[in-house]
User: Which sequence fits this backbone?
């Protein structure tokens, strides 16, 4: 018997997609990011639902993720954002995938190989407008970057369809607006320079948070994941985004322990009164981070109850002293609504100084995912 389970409402994801899509200019499309198994929620069922809803393109990190989507029947274009290796070109060709290019040297090697094999591949060019991760550096060298991009665009059998990048301050709620704007300016200045070279190319720069902050510059696509899943809906309240996911478990033991009693490993916690505790069968092996020890809460009978002591591998201990008539077998809500109270992955993320995807992506495979409205 599995005591903990997750419910994912695919209709909510489809509704969130429509809300985002309706806010965009007609000429701007959505690339749904389903990397890392859609941040732990399930890439295949989510991609199937979004494709039915009209999503024109998907993005993943690794070739294996894209192949899994194709084998599940996804027909829409799929961008693989990790730079392609020569050994992956046949796989990309077989499954009609879009590869990522990060510089001329790499692009030339791939082009030469494609010419030898007598086939072509679509590609998106990654540029670095300030994140200092992958791609052609733009800062203080726009002209050189434009020349390199133009050389890549001219290579045979490599069809460079789009240029993309990531903003450095993508998850910091607009606190670094000047940095964001400088990076956007670099990116779109590059596109202008390419147009002067008679290169017309599509763009995608905005992810979930920047799309909210800077709706005036969406580009040809926005590249979003978190906003579609609603795992931190309060972050996107302006769009009416809803949470798609709930997680529940059950109490497996209740007992009273005396005042001045240590609770769990460490110990990190000692009771200050005679305390009624409830043990629930979920822990850090399931993805409930130990950083939530003595910080996080769960919901029982429509009330918040604190996590006390260090979170264990398979168990978490709750203080239920103030909950009347609580008993073994009662449902415990980790995420979702319980009576008048609710909690999301975003709430746990805030306690851990993390993002909502960081919270969901580590959920263990041993937690069953139940998909509603497939």
Assistant:
């Amino acid at each position: 018997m599995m005591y903990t389970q997750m419910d994912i409402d695919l209709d909510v994801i489809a509704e969130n997609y429509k809300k985002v899509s309706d806010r965009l200019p007609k000429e701007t499309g959505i690339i749904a990011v389903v990397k890392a198994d859609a941040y732990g929620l399930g890439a295949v069922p989510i991609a199937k639902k979004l494709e039915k809803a009209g999503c024109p393109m998907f993005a993943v990190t690794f070739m294996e993720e894209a192949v899994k989507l194709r084998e599940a029947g996804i027909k829409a274009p799929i961008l693989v954002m990790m730079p392609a290796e020569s050994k992956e070109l046949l796989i990309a060709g077989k499954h009609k995938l879009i590869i990522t290019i990060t510089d001329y040297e790499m692009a030339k090697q791939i082009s030469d190989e494609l010419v030898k094999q007598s086939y072509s591949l679509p590609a998106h060019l990654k540029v670095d407008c300030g994140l200092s991760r992958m791609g052609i550096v733009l800062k203080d060298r726009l002209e050189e970057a434009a020349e390199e991009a133009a050389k890549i665009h001219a290579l045979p059998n490599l069809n460079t369809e789009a240029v993309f990048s990531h903003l450095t301050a993508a998850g910091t709620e607009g606190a670094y607006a000047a940095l964001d704007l400088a990076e956007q300016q670099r990116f779109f200045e590059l596109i202008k320079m390419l147009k002067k070279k008679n290169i017309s190319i599509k763009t995608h720069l905005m992810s979930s948070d920047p799309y909210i902050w800077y709706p005036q510059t969406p580009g040809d696509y926005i590249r979003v994941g978190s906003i579609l899943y609603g795992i931190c809906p309060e972050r996107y309240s302006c769009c009416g985004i809803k949470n798609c996911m709930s997680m529940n478990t059950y109490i497996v033991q209740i007992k009273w322990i005396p005042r001045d009693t240590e609770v769990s490993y460490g110990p990190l916690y000692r009771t200050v009164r005679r305390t009624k505790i409830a043990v629930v069968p979920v822990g850090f092996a399931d993805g409930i981070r130990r950083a939530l020890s003595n910080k996080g809460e769960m919901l029982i009978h429509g009330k918040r109850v604190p996590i006390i002591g260090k979170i264990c591998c398979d168990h978490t201990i709750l203080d239920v002293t103030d909950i009347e008539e609580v008993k073994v077998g009662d449902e415990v809500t980790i995420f979702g609504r319980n009576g008048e109270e609710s909690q999301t992955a975003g709430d746990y993320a805030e306690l851990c100084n993390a993002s909502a995807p960081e919270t969901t992506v580590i959920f263990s495979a041993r937690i069953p995912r139940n998909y509603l409205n497939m």
Notes: The mean pLDDT is 95. The chain is about 30% helix and 25% strand. The longest helix spans residues 177-196.
